Amino acid sequence: NAGVTQTPKFQVLKTGQSMTLQCAQDMNHEYMSWYRQDPGMGLRLIHYSVGAGITDQGEVPNGYNVSRSTTEDFPLRLLSAAPSQTSVYFCASSYDRGSSEQFFGPGTRLTVL
Amino acid sequence: KQEVTQIPAALSVPEGENLVLNCSFTDSAIYNLQWFRQDPGKGLTSLLLIQSSQREQTSGRLNASLDKSSGRSTLYIAASQPGDSATYLCAVSKLTGNQFYFGTGTSLTVIP
Fold this sequence. Notes:
The structure holds two protein chains of two kinds.
Chain A: E1 4-7, E2 10-13, E3 19-25, E4 31-38, E5 42-51, E6 54-57, E7 64-66, E8 76-78, E9 87-94, E10 103-104, E11 108-112
Parallel strand pairs in A: 2-11
Antiparallel strand pairs in A: 1-3, 3-8, 4-5, 4-9, 5-6, 7-8, 9-10, 9-11
Chain B: E1 4-7, E2 10-14, E3 19-25, E4 30-38, E5 44-51, E6 56-59, E7 62-67, E8 72-77, E9 86-94, E10 100-102, E11 106-111
């Protein structure tokens, strides 16, 4: 199993550009989520999904969109990048939402100029 | 909202010492608590998962305990090694809602 994979590893954007961060898992997990990690603020939940076709907002959803058309994939879209979105983004998955272990991808380091 | 706090923010110990990392949370209605390790520039690696009905979990030199009533968990590392140097994060999932809540972590340095 590859576990949770994320692409790209690094990305530099200009303000106003859009892009999609990719996340995939091969563990048949129902629950997937996106976090951003900023110095001194810990990990904050952006969006999550409890299964294909079902998504919901987390703590900091503004400026981001998600969709879940398959169990395996959960892309995160930045609609119009802003410098405040400079961060490290992590995708995670687990068998269900509450009782099982979370597995994390290696992260995408995004810089918005 | 669930608040998760980890104290201290940083800890430096000599090799071989036993140590305890602390995690506290404000809402005791949780599904589970998970401890992670994060190396610089890397993702999070799961260390231990404690279900709400459990009191502790052990893996090798690591032992995690959970006291739901007081909103506390500890991660005990025995006979620390330089390779244990990393940031340690705890996260809790609540019974209601679909979110996991993270602490800001404890940065551990084990000095050879």
